[in-house]
Write a structure and sequence with these properties.
9 helices; 210 residues; alpha/beta; five-stranded parallel sheet; 53% helix
C-alpha cells in the first residue's frame, strides 16, 4: 500500500496549479493543496502538510520570506521548496538549512523539476551546486551570524524612516541589494518584518553601531 503525502503549493498562477495538480499526484503519489500567500497560515493549521512549495514567479520575496519564517518558527517538521528561484537577485536569505530542501531556478524545465521532486520525496535535498557553494562561502564570512557593516548601516537607515530606495541612493547600490541586506539582517536578529526590525534597532542599535 503506497502512502500518499500531502504537499501544498503557494502560487497565484492557476495555470501552474492546474499543471501540477494534473501531473504530480499521478507521478509522485502526492496530494497537492493550493494556497494563496494570505491563506497559507490558516491552511497549515488544518492540513497535515509535509512540504510547502513556493512559486517565486507569483509570490514576492518579502511575502515568501515572512511565510518561510512562520514555517521555521511554528511548523519545524514542514519542509520548503522554491520554484522559479531568481538567478539575477540574491535571494539566499529565503533558504534555511533546517527547512529548505529544494531550489529550482526560473529556467528549470519540468523534467528537471520532476526528477528533483522525486529525490526530495526520497529524503534528499536538491539545490543548484553554485548556489550551495555560494551559501557555504557566505556562512564562512558571516562569523556566527554577526551583522555585517553594511547590514548595520541599513538598520541604522531604517531608524531615520528611509525607504529602501532612499537607502539604496545613500549607499550607491540597487534597491534589490538593499532588500537582500535587510532580509539577511532580519534573519540574524530574529524578526520577520520592517516594523519588527525598527523596534529591535531602537532597543539594540547601540550594540550594532561601529
Amino acid at each position: 500500500m503506497f502512502k500518499i503525502v500531502n504537499w501544498m503549493l503557494v502560487s497565484r498562477s492557476q495555470l501552474l496549479t492546474d499543471l501540477l495538480e494534473c501531473r504530480w499526484p499521478q507521478e509522485f503519489l502526492i496530494k497537492l493543496t493550493h494556497a494563496s500567500p494570505g491563506s497559507l497560515a490558516a491552511k497549515l493549521e488544518s492540513h497535515n502538510v509535509s512540504v510547502v512549495v513556493f512559486d517565486l514567479a507569483t509570490v514576492d520575496l518579502q511575502q515568501s520570506y515572512q511565510l518561510q519564517r512562520l514555517i521555521e518558527r511554528e511548523y519545524s517538521t514542514v519542509k520548503t521548496v522554491f520554484l522559479n528561484f531568481p538567478r539575477q537577485i540574491d535571494a539566499k536569505f529565503l533558504i534555511h538549512p533546517a527547512t529548505s530542501v529544494g531550489v529550482f531556478y526560473l529556467d528549470s524545465g519540468i523534467s528537471e523539476i520532476s526528477s528533483g521532486l522525486n529525490d526530495i520525496l526520497k529524503g534528499r535535498s536538491v539545490m543548484p551546486f553554485e548556489l550551495h557553494q555560494s551559501m557555504l562561502h557566505d556562512d564562512a564570512e558571516d562569523d556566527t551570524d554577526s551583522l555585517t557593516i553594511r547590514e548595520r548601516e541599513v538598520l541604522q537607515a531604517l531608524l531615520s524612516g528611509s525607504t529602501n530606495l532612499d537607502i539604496a541612493n545613500q549607499l550607491f547600490v540597487s534597491e534589490s541589494t538593499i532588500k537582500t541586506h535587510l532580509y539577511r539582517a532580519f534573519r540574524k536578529i530574529g524578526v520577520s518584518s520592517r516594523g519588527q526590525a525598527i523596534a529591535w534597532a531602537q532597543t539594540h542599535m547601540h550594540e550594532v553601531r561601529c
